[in-house]
Design a protein that fits this description.
Helices cover 39% and strands 19% of the residues. This is Glycosyltransferase involved in cell wall biosynthesis.
């Protein structure tokens, strides 16, 4: 593998990778198996792991007993490098994190204790991890209703079919050409039943969230995506799940509980954030503004951001806040007066954080870096986000001003694209150029997107409410007018129909009159001819003088 992460994947189009069929295994894999009771299913899962074709010397298995009664034990039929640890804190996230703390592999393979891997499954996963160091690979699980056998069958397919596929994963993969066609949420593929992850991604993303009741797999998948992961479905990594999942048994209840928690943590789930004003643990976008540029300039920029159409927003105002000292005896002559004003103005604003650096929470999908004094229009940020999301871009640069002094620009950065670029960049390589390769970069005109330095005109909530009420009243008036005009048009159509009918009747009458006139003309001509003949005869009978 070359320095800088090897082949560069654009978006999630992993088709550029060419994992070798006859690769030489060198990466170590740690299989983490959280378990609670059900010793019989665990025995089968470990027996299936013992049959794997990936080298045993490169494989370790960490079984985590999550408070079983009686305690779990390791069966004789298991991989050679298998150990059992205990985790008294209940919950899959706690158990997986306990196993993760013990893992030493280059790749972490999550495996549920009721999932039986086909013999080549781990090898199918590891083929991909040898091709790139930033992958999340998910196998294909089938859910069987067959009785749990006492021993692992020689032919798993024969023993456990017919079985039901993981339907929503199949649908997601087929709908997005195998997740290569710019899917909006490829991280949904991260499911804990049989998924492997590059250990360096987990190190960057952090462990599973123990505060979540459900949805830990998806939430961690989201953070892996933010860390630059590429998600790969591998149909040759097959497995059988003994029985249905909890979601299959009661999807509505599972979604109800899961959505209540993940909405705070996964900004990409926009449909769960329909409230027009509330704040969330992880905002959709964070704006960074230099707080040392003067009170009026900073306030113009920050207030415009807070007044925009993107409420799912936080603002980081940078400055030496911790070392700031206020002059109480002569505040107007304080050399740090502007900093004091900025600090005092925003210290209690919930969406603004006064920070010493421009670092942003890596879980936030987008970061806007905006020079103070420049104000985005009310819908500017929303339009930039639409552009970045719809085209899958990693960076949108906004040209604000260009002069002999240089270029002034704002930047909307996609966190996941920059994280991927850092993984694959070579030493000294310009990061924006790498982002262009893995996601795409574009420039837009600030004027086109309504950025300005003009004094702000902020419409308050009540003013906005009045304007909306007036607009709704105008819409209602225009709707009534449209209905009235439609009625008038209907009347005109009826009248036009009558006119057409009358026209037809008149044409018929005219045609009749024309026929009568023609007949009268013919009769008149006949009378003239008869009269002429009669006169000629009468003249012919008169005696000559």
């Amino acid at each position: 593998m070359s320095e800088g992460g090897g082949v560069r994947v654009r978006g999630n189009d992993y088709s550029v990778l060419r994992p070798a069929e006859d690769f030489t295994p060198s990466l170590r894999v740690s299989v983490i198996v959280p378990a609670y009771d059900n010793q019989d299913k665990l025995d089968l899962a470990l027996a299936a792991l013992a049959r794997q074709t990936y080298p045993a010397e490169l494989t370790e298995v960490v079984v985590v007993d999550n408070g079983s009664t009686p305690p779990l034990r390791l069966p004789a039929d298991r991989p050679p490098h298998t150990r059992l640890i205990t985790c008294d804190t209940p919950g899959r996230a706690a158990a997986r994190n306990a196993g993760l703390a013990e893992a030493s592999g280059d790749v972490v393979h999550w495996l549920d204790s009721d999932v039986l891997l086909m013999p080549g499954a781990v090898e199918a996963h590891m083929r991909w991890h040898h091709a790139a160091p930033y992958l999340v690979v998910t196998g294909y699980i089938r859910f069987t209703a067959a009785a749990v056998p006492a021993e692992l069958p020689d032919d798993l397919e024969k023993a456990f079919e017919p079985a039901e596929p993981h339907g929503w994963i199949i649908e997601l993969v087929e709908r997005t050409d195998g997740l290569t066609n710019n899917p909006q949420r490829p991280f949904s593929l991260h499911v804990g039943g049989a998924t492997s992850v590059a250990a360096r991604l987990i190190e960057a993303a952090g462990p599973m969230d123990g505060d979540l009741v459900l949805g830990q797999d998806t939430e961690m998948g989201y953070r892996l995506a933010q860390a630059g992961a590429v998600f790969v479905p591998e149909p040759r990594a097959r497995a059988y799940h003994l029985g249905p999942t909890m979601r299959m048994r009661d999807k509505a209840s599972i979604d109800r509980v899961s959505h209540a928690f993940v909405a705070d943590r996964i900004p990409s789930y926009r449909w769960l954030r329909s409230h027009p004003g509330r704040q969330w643990k992880v905002p959709y976008v964070t704006a960074v503004v230099d707080g040392t540029a003067g009170y009026e300039s900073v306030r113009a920029t920050v207030d415009a951001l807070l007044a925009g159409t993107v409420p799912d927003l936080s603002v980081v105002v940078t400055g030496p806040w911790e070392s700031l000292e206020r002059e109480h005896r002569a505040p107007l002559t304080d050399p740090e007066l502007d900093l004091v004003l900025v600090h005092g103005h925003y210290r209690h604003e919930g969406r603004v954080r006064l920070a010493g650096s421009a670092e942003v929470d890596p879980a936030v999908p987008f970061t806007l870096r905006l020079p103070p004094g420049w104000r985005p229009g009310e819908d500017s940020l929303a339009r930039l986000l639409d552009l970045c999301r719809d085209e899958g871009l990693g960076l949108v640069s906004v040209l604000l001003e260009e002069s002999s002094q240089g270029v002034v620009a704002a930047r909307l950065e996609r966190t996941s694209a920059f994280a991927r670029a850092r993984v694959v960049a070579r030493p000294g390589e310009d990061l924006d150029d790498v982002v262009d390769e893995v996601a795409g970069v574009t420039w837009v005109e600030g004027e086109t997107y309504a950025f300005t330095t003009e004094p702000p005109t902020v419409t308050g909530r009540r003013g906005a409410l009045r304007a909306r009420a007036e607009a709704q009243a105008e819409i209602a008036r225009l709707t009534k007018e449209v209905e009235r005009l439609r009625g008038q048009v209907g009347k005109w159509r009826d009248e036009a129909g009558r006119w057409r009918k009358n026209t037809v009747e008149l044409r018929r009458e005219v045609s009749g009159l024309r026929r009568q006139l023609a007949a009268a003309n013919r009769a008149q001509q006949g009378m003239r001819a008869l009269l002429s003949t009669t006169v000629k005869r009468a003249l012919g009978k008169r005696p000559r003088a």
